[in-house]
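Summary: Need help interpreting a holo structure output

Steps to reproduce:
1. Submit the protein chain below together with the SMILES for zinc ion.
2. Request a joint structure prediction with the ligand placed.
3. Inspect the structure token block that comes back.

Expected: a single structure record containing both the chain and the bound molecule.
Actual: see attached output.

Input attached:
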Amino acid sequence: MWFFKPAWQSKNFNKARKMAEKEADQAILAEIALKALDDVTRAIAAEKLTDQSVLVDIAKNDVDKLVRQAVVKRLADQTALAYIAKNDSESTVRTAAVNKLTDQHTLAGIASKDKDKDVRILARAMITDPVILAGILTTIVTVTDRDMYEAISLTKKIDDQYILAELAKKARSLHVCNTAADKLTDTRLIIDAAENAAEWTLRIKLAKRLTDQAVLVSIAKNDADKRVRKTVLEKLAGQPVLAEIVMCGCAGSEDALASLSDRDILEDIISKTQDKYIKDRALRQMGGFTCLSCGRENRPDNGRKLLCVCVYCQAENHAFKRRHESSTGRDWEHSSSWDECMWCAQTKNHESSLTGSM
Ligand SMILES: [Zn+2]
Ligand SMILES: [Zn+2]
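--- attached output ---
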């Protein structure tokens, strides 16, 4: 038996489209939107549909990505949008769904799992919950310029000082660390991050903003990185507190001593320290030395440079450092290394002295 197909099922697509444009009945429009042969006809009908459940059906099942994409833009149902955002095979449809998603956890899942980078970036940009954003920013890796700009702009969205401090301390990307550190205003948290950031460059950046002397002293004493300690010592330059750092016998003692020139402070350190190395270094800092033979302290008189002959026992206390360069003297053909006294700059040939010929 033959019966007439409705116009919207026509293989004459122009006729079908006109029919869909004229139709007002929601039930018929639904049927057209679900079953018409022509993509455009289905899209025209879908445009006019108001029933969300039919729209969800189309968004999930239409074979044409443009139809699905158009319908997704009209969906409000978060559950359906989440399903489409996670499961549609086309990135353009997933993008349309992500654009309408508000559920933060769904967005976070898409931000880490979608196979398309653009979709992941969009999902991250849609996240507003600072805790979820911080979770992403802690582990985000910035390789390209685009990664960098994204990481910076996401970090700028966070205002919570505690979260910013955590990011400055622990984020994997230095761009995140730096941006977070720049937004820190809470002094207590700046101190915390200056003391505990994983990256030494961050610790320096934050230490430069500190004024609390007790905190600066603590960093100068204990920071694991010499470069951080040095930066802080520069801030403490010329202050008596440097002696306290020298005397602490901690990581920063030697650096602090190197930055001291005040003779009274150096003398004070020499008289008080139990550390032979520090004592010798302080003495040398003043231009003197400890005699290697009799152990007495030779001090320069009125700041004059001392030759390293002990004024007490007359022993030559040369402490030579290797020069590792060919002598221009008579031993040149042997490329023998000559050494230089650290105090008086006298030189001697190390190999010769080893063989006892000097
Ligand atoms: Zn001596
Ligand atoms: Zn010497």
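--- end attachment ---

Reviewer comment: Residues 145-156 form the longest helix (12 residues). Residues 128-210 form one domain.
Status: needs-info
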